[in-house]
Amino acid sequence: MIELLSLNLCNYHNFDKRKPRIINFIKELEPDIVVLQEVRDDSRYNAKGDNQAEQINRHLNYPHITFAETMDINLVKGTPDEQERTEGLAVLSKMPILETKKRNLRKHPDDKFTRAIMHVRLMSNKPIDILNVHFSPGIQFAKLHLKETIELSKAWGIKPIIVGDFNIPNPEIIRELAPNYTISADVKKYLSYIPRENAKKDKVYNTEACTLDYILIPKNYEFEYFDCVDKDLSDHSVLIAGILG
Predict the structure, then answer these.
(1) Strands (DSSP E) along 14-160, which ranges?
(2) Which pTM does this prediction carry?
(3) CA-closest candidate to residue 238, choices 178, 197, 190, 205
(4) Using one digit for the tens of pLDDT, what is the confidence trace for 207-238?
(5) pLDDT of 197 strictly over 70
(6) Domain 2-244, CATH number (from 3.50.50.60, 3.30.479.10, 1.10.10.10, 3.60.10.10)
């Protein structure tokens, strides 16, 4: 069994206060794999390359860590003269990382964000493929990104565990697009996006609590357990799973 934890870090919003809670929570659980989304490398807050995953791992000491940049924040916001800041995906692992690759997803009209998926191959008693994802907000974009992700998996000849922030509040959409997967929402009903009191009014889904984060496992795996826990670590709850396969 592998134990996996996933969390959208909510970039640097109140990170000084949240970081100790995140570190202590992960230390308490000691999962084999930590999968993180919305990880910032922001020169206003950290030295170049010392992204949030690196900062967290200095206290966790996972032997293997990898990061993939997915978005130039200044390009998205139209602020090219501001200090350099990028966003990406990260994986921390107790198991050796055999390979990491990033694949940019298609940028669709009217989508201001750039997105990518992060493929990480780990070695346990056999190779394990994981896709770390953070799709664009807006169901029309997120659906297209999930469809493209499934197609890329087939093209690469892999049956990966797909985990992250899908930005799809209806699990039925995921069941339709990924029929060969068991999704975490099949195991337990949960809300993974919990807006805080200071959430911006224009934030996706009108700041209503909903389910945006999932773990998808191919049929040759099964969930030993799954939980979604709100410990006020982020505006997203933590997903925790034990996976057999």
Answers:
(1) 33-42, 64-72, 85-93, 97-104, 116-123, 127-134
(2) 0.95
(3) 190
(4) 678 999 999 999 999 999 999 999 999 999 99
(5) no
(6) 3.60.10.10
